[in-house]
Amino acid sequence: MFDLTGKVAIVTGGSRGIGRAMCEALAEHGARVVVGYASGEEKAREVVSAIEAKGGQAEAFQVDVSNGAQTEERIADVAKRLGRLDVLVANAGISIDGLLLRLRDEDFDRLLSVNLKGAVASSRAAIKVMMRARTGRVILVSSVVGESGNAGQTAYAASKAALLGVTKSLAREYATRGITVNAITPGYIDTDMTAALNDDQKKQIAAAIPLGRTGKPREIAAAAVFLASDEAAYVTGHALRVNGGMYV
Ligand code: NAP
Q1: What is the DSSP secondary-structure string of 213-243?
Q2: Whose CA is nearest to atom 19 of ligand 1?
């Protein structure tokens, strides 16, 4: 089960955190993985080396998903060079937190251009290739905050809730082409994005999670492997919660 041998997978934001774990897990299941990064080339190369050290296939791939034209061109180039594109994980994301009254328009725009428009541009490029093959898997990384909302995260929540609408619309639009489109909504996961919180804040968050702890990147990666696999062929338009019960 979950054999991805022979498949090509692009993971945007694959150089760190959840994306890195997804790259490693997809490679462990046999996929050739394209590890996306925006500016952290060294980190992306570390991921490639870790995958190769275990006998997997990977390469680093620079793309700033907030630049739609560049994103589409680069994803098309990779698919052409590798001869196929089976899986896209649109994982690249940023958070800019703050109460509404302090939310600056330029921060809101920046956040939407990476988290929302970046995922849409990546999906458009991937789906163009997948349509010709009449098969493909698109996985968008949303968030529990897109479902529950969170004080101080209006902009972030807006971007992540919008991705759920994108997921459902694209799932309907491309089902007849053999392409499934799903989202993952992670809860609170230990990565650089969440490292800024102090121990007290982390304890408070853990107390609000029924499973009593924060999540690990590999627990999100497992969901991506499933959604990327042939076994998930009948799952589309779904948002898979991996949140320890934080929102049910
Ligand atoms: P992270 O550790 O901060 O890593 C972010 C990744 O995104 C890095 O690889 C980064 O590459 C890349 N990235 C940032 N801006 C980019 C851009 N403009 N173009 C292309 N790549 C860009 O984040 P994470 O915690 O693993 O989060 C990954 C995804 O999961 C995000 O979409 C996040 O919103 C979502 N999520 C996270 C949590 C959580 O608790 N951690 C919960 C729910 C959802 P560089 O290093 O090159 O900048």
Answers
A1: S-B-HHHHHHHHHHHHSGGGTT--S-EEEES
A2: 64
Residue 161 to residue 206: CA distance in whole angstroms = 23
186-216: pLDDT as tens digits: 999 999 988 888 888 888 889 999 999 999 9
214 CA closest ligand 1 atom index:
40
Cβ 242 vs Cβ 220: under 8 Å: yes
Q: Which of 67, 93, 59 is nearest to 191 (CA)?
A: 93
pLDDT in tens, 151-184: 999 999 999 999 999 999 999 999 999 999 999 9
Distance 222 CA to ligand 1 centre (A): 17
Distance CA 140, CA 109 (A): 20
Residues carrying an active site annotation: 156
Phi, psi (degrees; rounded to nearest 5) at 92: -55, 130
